[in-house]
Design brief:
The protein has 234 residues and is mainly β. It is built from 2 helices and 21 strands. β9 and β10 form a beta hairpin.
Amino acid sequence: MSETCLEIQLSNATLDSLRTGGYALFVLLPVVSSNHSGVPLVWLCRENYLATIRVVIPETNLGYIATASIAADRTIAIGSQTPVACHQRVDVGASGTLSTTTGELPGIYFDSASGAPRYTCGLARRGDGEPAPYCAFDLYPDLTVSLAPSPAILAFFATSRYRPGTYLEASLGAGLYLPTPPGTTTRVGYDTGDGWQADAGAKASQVPSGTPLAERLIERPPPDVPLSRSLPGR
């Protein structure tokens, strides 16, 4: 299968302006879930780039747990992890071990054993280095967290620096949200004067600076619609 990529084209003048100003590229990834504890985490914060920025989005998701609780500007460090895909359940043992089973339900489901500690759970993907969490949810014993990856991306430039896996409450710059169909390369442009540009067929939407990211990136199924019918493409 071909890689799933986002390509951002910069003019030489824009590249010079971004470098002079000390701007980094932020990338965050959405998920579908009705669980209101969910928050997005910075997946990528890239300081070094050229006029054509290529961001590869790996196909493989990792289900993870962590002991750190969710808080603004706090970095979630992965504890245990395992490859996971839709139609799988991640069972979390009392000691933090993970095992997966396949079922008929369409999403990814985290279940924690009775007597287990409270954990943070979510999904991770490999970014510019080690796998980085891109969402986080509270996981309690005997309660299920259900979610599914959504094939889209949010990108913006900002002068702040955030480590991958850190909970960022609001967009630090004007961003672009757009679908990234699996196995395709989606191309957009960015200019310091005109902002983001994308083809009409890309179905992109502008995200103003200061937008609350949990509202934008934790995509909620509508009322009376289960997760199974809320996944992209259904």
